[in-house]
Amino acid sequence: MKIDIITVLPELLESSLMHSIIKRAQDKGLLQINLHQLRKWAINEYGQVDDYQYGGGAGMVLLCEPLAKAIEELSSVTTYDEIIYLTPDGEKLNQKTVNVLSLKKNLLLICGHYKGIDERIREHFVTKEISIGDYVLSGGELAAAVLTDAIGRLIPGVLNDETSALFDSFQDDLLAPPVYSRPEEYRGWKVPEVLMNGNHKLIEEWRQEQSSNRTKEKRPDLLNDL
Ligand code: 6GU
Question: Which of 25, 85, 96, 134 could bridge across to 158 with cysteines, CB 3.0–4.6 Å?
Answer without folding.
Answer: 25
